[in-house]
Structures are given as C-alpha cells and as structure tokens.
Amino acid sequence: MENKNWSFRVTGFRKLLILFVIIAAIASLYRFIYGLGSVTNMSDQWPWGLWIGFDLLCGIALAGGGFSTALIVHVLHKDKYLPVARAALLTSLLGYIIALVGLFLDIGRWYNFWRPFFYWGYHSVLFEVFWCIALYTTVQVLEFGDIFFEKVHCPSLKRILSATMPFWLIIGIVLPTLHQSSLGSLYIVAVNRLNPLWWSMIIPFFFVWSAFFLGPAMVTIEGTLAARTYGREPEQPVFSSLTKVTLWMMIIYFIVKIVDLNYRGVFSNAFDGSYESNMFLTEMIVFVLLPIFMYAVPGIRNKQWGVLTASILVVAGVVFNRMNVVFTGMAKSAGGHYFPTIWEFLITIGMWSALVLLYCFIVENFPILTKEEHVSHGSGLGSKTGIHA
Amino acid sequence: MASAKGVLVDITRCIDCESCVVACRLYNGLDADTKGGAKPRQTGKNELAPNRWTVVRDNHVQKDGKTVRRFVKQQCFHCVEPACASACFARAIQKTPEGPVVYNEKLCVGCRYCMIACPFGILRFEWDKPFPRVLKCQMCLSRVADNQMPACASVCPTRAIVFGEREQIVQEANKRIAAKPGLYINQVYGAKEAGGTSWLYISDVPFEQLGFKTNVPEKPIPEYTWQVLKWTPGIFIGWGALLTGMYWYNKRRATVHNEEELYAPVDKK
C-alpha cells in the first residue's frame, strides 16, 4: 500500500453523473439567491418536501447499514460478515454527508445552522437529532480515518485512532440508535395531524427497528452492485446468511405494528378503503409480508436473484414507509397538494450522483472491499450491467 | 405566570369591519402589498401570510334552517404550552410570562419544524426571501407587557375582542354562555384545546362549521414529545454500557483478524 497514486477513471456513465452534479450545483446556487419558493413547491401547508422526506429521512435510514453492520461485526463479532463491514461504513458515511448537504439546502436561514449548539432547545426532538447526526458524522469520519491512514501514512495519528477505536465503535452505534428513532419521534408532535395508521407513541421504535433491519438488505444490494461493477464475485453466502437478521426483525416489526394498531383502536382504519388505508396495506403486504416470505424460503434466499429482489423490496419498503409518514399520512390535515418541482428532483438526483461518484472514487483508492482471491476475469461483466463501465 | 394575559373573541359580535386587520398591519409595520409570500393560499385575501398576521374569515353556515354569515378573526392562538416553541431546537420561539408566544429571527435556523408542530396550522414562511423568517401574530408583546391590549383589540368597535388576565377571560366566557344559554354553544374554544390557549372563542354555531380544528388534543402537545424524549439519557447510558459489555465479552473469544490484510482498493484496470 505504499503507492500514493490516486486514480479516477472517467467513463461515459460517470460523465453523466458529473453533469447531474453540476446541474444540481447551479440550481442550488439559484435557491440560495432567490429563496426556497423559487425552486421548490413547498408551501405553508407543506413546509417539508422532497429534500426532508427523501434526502434526509430516507438518506439517513438507508445509511442504517453502517450501524447495524458495526453492531453485528464489531460488537457481536460475527466475523463471517467482516468482508462487507467497510463497504457498509463507507455507504453510511456518504449517506450522512448527503443528508447534511440536503438539510443545509433546505433550511432557510442556513448561516444560523450552528445556533442549536449554543441555544439548547433540548425539549425539541430536532435538538437530539441535530446533535446526534453532527456527532455521528464526526465519529464516522474518525472510523474512516483508520482506513484512510492505511493508505496515507501518518503513523502517530493511525496509532491514536486504532487505540481509541473501540470507543468510537460503541459511540457510533449508540448515536445512530438514538437519532434513527428520533427521526420518528419528530412526528409525535403531529399528534392531531399525522394519520393514526402511522402516528404512534412508539413511532421511534418503528423507525430505529426498520433502519436496523434495512442494513443487511442495503449491504446486499450495494455489494451486488459493486460486484457487478467491478467484475467480482458477490459475497453470496454472507448475503444469504444476513437475511436471518432481517427476517426475524421484520416479523417482530409486523407483530408490533398489529399490536400497536389494536392497542390504539385504529386497526379497522387499515381496511376502511381510504387512500391512506390502501397505502398502508400496500406497505404492509408488498414491503413487509412479501420480503418476510422470500427470506423465509431457502429456495429463494439462497439464490442471487432471490436475496437481491427481497432486499430491494425491504429497502423500497422503508423508503415507502418514510414517504407515507411525511406525505400520505399528513395530506388530509395539511390540505392543498405538494408535488416536487423538476428542480427539487434535479437537486436530489445531483446529490445522489455525487454519492455514487464518491463511492467509486473511494473504493478504487482505499482498501474498502476484500482482496480478490477468486477473481472472475473482470473485463466483460462490468459493461453488461450498465451501472458503470 | 400569574399575570398571563388572554383574549376572548365573541364571534356573535363580529361584523367583519376588519379594523383589527388594519390596526395589526399599522402597529406591526407590515407591508400592505398582498403579494406576501406569493405561494398558493398566501395570496387569498382571507389567508394568513407573512405580512398578514390576522385575518377575518367569512363563513356561510346553516343555523335554524337559514344560511347565516359568521366572521372568525384568525391569528396565532398563543398556546399556554406551545407545540411550536417546544419543537424549536434553537429557542427561536418562546412563551413569554405575559402570555404571547414570540419569534426571534436572530436564532431561527429556518427548519420549519414549528410549522409541522403547530396543531392549528398558523405559522407562515417567507418562501420568496433568501433569508426567510417564520412569521405570525406576536400578540403585541410590548403593549401587552405594558398592560395595554393588543392593537387589534384596541380598535374593535363592537367589543368582540376582550382583553384581560387569561383566568378572568375564561370566567367571562363562561359567564356570557351562562347568561344566554339559548344563544351560545356551550363550549369555550381554547379553554382546553392543546392544553389551553391565550386566545379563546365563544360562538353561536358549532366550531367545526367555522373551520376550527376540533381534533386538537386536550393534553399539552409538548408533553407527548417529552414522554419519549425523557428516555434519551437513559438509553444513551444503558445501551452504551450493554454494547461495551458485549464488545469486551465477545472480543476475548474472537479470533484476531489483520484487517489490513483483508481489504484492498479494487482493481481498476
């Protein structure tokens, strides 16, 4: 690892991604000069739109792979999952950076972003979210620093980081547990606004639990994509084995949902035929029960297509759930409509394009993925997928 | 908190003259330009906007088989325990001992969580400004702190807006209802909603027909959040201790891997 050559191959697909990033940067500049109203469809009825609903809530949830993998690999010491640990950490770190950039675009008085560090509105859920995300992003940078210094030599820093790593690892699980749940708690305040199918005093449990069980599914998708892109063998046994975690957690998730609905006496709302109830049933059947079934059948979960399809359903399901909380469940009380403008979409696409580019750059320059022992003569596979060439 | 002020709006007395709207605009120096935020719903004459902190809304309702008009002055309710203030993570919205719930733009980050939190949907955002503010009625804090009534109340020609100590105002509302039980609906809106509000209403038609939100819980909304949030330090310490324990227990039994040997940059030929 002595060489310090940095490399980034620019391909056609990557040029397209770079174009998306540039468009998003220009649109963001416009937003900073002319205000949120000039580029978004947000309104007083819909103060939170695509950027908070998708980039922040989903971005952070999708980054859940980082803390669930850290818990499984480094605390429970399930070493067979070690091959995916660093990739999960990297995706998580990038997910948080995206969420923070998105948040910065979304807040109106961005030059005041530091105020909550000094004016403690501790009675606000957002206060906890703010502190946890700020600290956890720092912790992830430190965790990644341990990897960074394997390439960039700086022995003294590397030694300090390695010695203190157990502390960062544990803090790096506690903080996301808190703010993943708090992202759900944000909506407790909307007690008379969020549809009771989603509003619950235990919505923090649903948020943190789903962010956790989403982790293995995210690792599976991302691992498969990376394997295809770089013409490697997917870590198939690791993925199939990880499904057990998600399977049992999803079963518990489903049972708690039912019990919670019954306890609050709104179980029948799920079947009243309203738009909200149909969205809720879709969420439960297509994105919870179906993946549970697919993970439970060995003939499906041990196949590459099977574990991948089920994992995509799990990830899409968590996104669907967050969208239901932010949009579907709030629609009736908010009134009016909200649909993002093309600019809101373009800025979102630009941010996620930046994430893909950064991921590619980092895995090509830092030791993130496992060394290839059984290389599958790379050249052909990459172009086949279209993800990257 | 003994001197927390309150205001009673008697809907049966309002004649839609909009003196209160004009007084509000003049006292608070709000731009009369109707453009306001230029967002849907902020442009309508009778919609609250960043530059319209109070409006009088016209309702056509059925009463005794006839269609009648009732006018409802709308502004911030100034909750006794405001959800918006509890939602603000920068302390930009504060409940004052005098009663008004006021906004301090110096601390505001512009996250709009207060707008999600408000059970009445009152807050308005300056969508067109590069450095937007969240604006709403401030209940003329400097006047109220000086024991003067808010600007809007001071100009009401029919005395539909009554100002005083909140406790006295609630009593006054109940007294009026008791004096004319045939006229008023037996409910003081704001007495219990969201744990009580500083602005209270009495009416001769049911409140839900006048656009009032009737699903506002009687428990103060900040209490819901606090019920969950109070567990944070415990979870932090308990979960952290559990993880530390598991970490050391499992580490002793685990085999050591040299991570530097396991990973490598991907081959990018």
Automatic annotation (TrEMBL), chain A:
Membrane topology: Multi-pass membrane protein
Gene: hybB_3
Pfam families xrefs: NrfD
Family named by the database record: Belongs to the NrfD family.
Matches recorded under PANTHER family: FORMATE DEHYDROGENASE, NITRATE-INDUCIBLE, CYTOCHROME B556 FDN SUBUNIT, NI_FE-HYDROGENASE 2 B-TYPE CYTOCHROME SUBUNIT-RELATED
KW Membrane (keyword) present: yes
Keyword vocabulary terms for this entry: Cell membrane, Membrane, Transmembrane, Transmembrane helix
GO cellular component, one term: plasma membrane
Domain of life: Bacteria
Protein name listed in UniProt: Putative Ni/Fe-hydrogenase 2 b-type cytochrome subunit
GO biological process: anaerobic respiration
Locations listed in the record: Cell membrane
UniProtKB/TrEMBL annotation, chain B:
Any GO CC annotation of this UniProt entry: cell envelope
Domain 4Fe-4S ferredoxin-type: 5-35, 99-128
Main location, first listed in the record: other
UniProt keyword annotation of Repeat present: yes
Cited PROSITE patterns: 4FE4S_FER_1, 4FE4S_FER_2
Lineage: superkingdom: Bacteria
UniProt GO molecular function: 4 iron, 4 sulfur cluster binding; metal ion binding
Location of the protein in the cell: Cell envelope
Alphabetically ordered keywords of this record: 4Fe-4S, Iron, Iron-sulfur, Metal-binding, Repeat
This protein's name: Formate dehydrogenase-O iron-sulfur subunit
Organism: Pelotomaculum propionicicum
